């Protein structure tokens, strides 16, 4: 299949959305004992996750660099995206997440303790986008 930024955007958006449902569903089980695994997400999250499609060209350029370096770079880019989009949405009273109660938050829009999750998420997107040729 030919690479297309639009289809990569849709693929990343849907994958991110599904992972968010899994993450928040498991959170509801372990923290609220919700056996229904109720998840929480927002339409805003789809384009935010979809922007991971922009990692595809970067991943192809960095393919010979160690995974720990690539994952760290992706983590920084994800934090930048999360901070930028979160701040914008918060300014317009539309931010679907609020980390202000978390210990390691910055302005309520990013959580530093999520670094390992973003590290592996970046490498996941890299692999997902590399598989599509």
In brief, what are we looking at here?
The chain has one domain. Helix content is 62%, strand content 3%. It has helices spanning 5-32, 45-50, 55-61, 67-91, 115-131, and strands spanning 105-106, 110-111.
Keywords:
133 residues; mainly alpha; two-stranded antiparallel sheet; 62% helix; 3% strand; globular
Describe what this molecule looks like in 3D:
- 62% of the residues lie in helices and 3% in strands.
- The protein has 133 residues and is mainly alpha-helical.
- It starts with a helix and ends with a helix.
- It contains five helices and two strands, in the order ααααββα.
Query: Termini, distance in Å?
Result: 6 Å
CA gyration radius, whole angstroms: 15 Å
Name the average pLDDT.
93
Portion in strands: under 5%
Q: What is the number of helices?
A: 5
* Helix share bin: 55-70%
Described by its quaternary structure, the protein is single chain
Structural class: mainly alpha
Q: Order of strands across the biggest sheet?
A: 1-2
Can you write the helix and strand succession as a string? HHHHEEH
Domain module tally? 1
Most strands sheet:
2 strands, antiparallel
Topology:
Layout: H1 5-32, H2 45-50, H3 55-61, H4 67-91, E1 105-106, E2 110-111, H5 115-131
Antiparallel strand pairs: 1-2
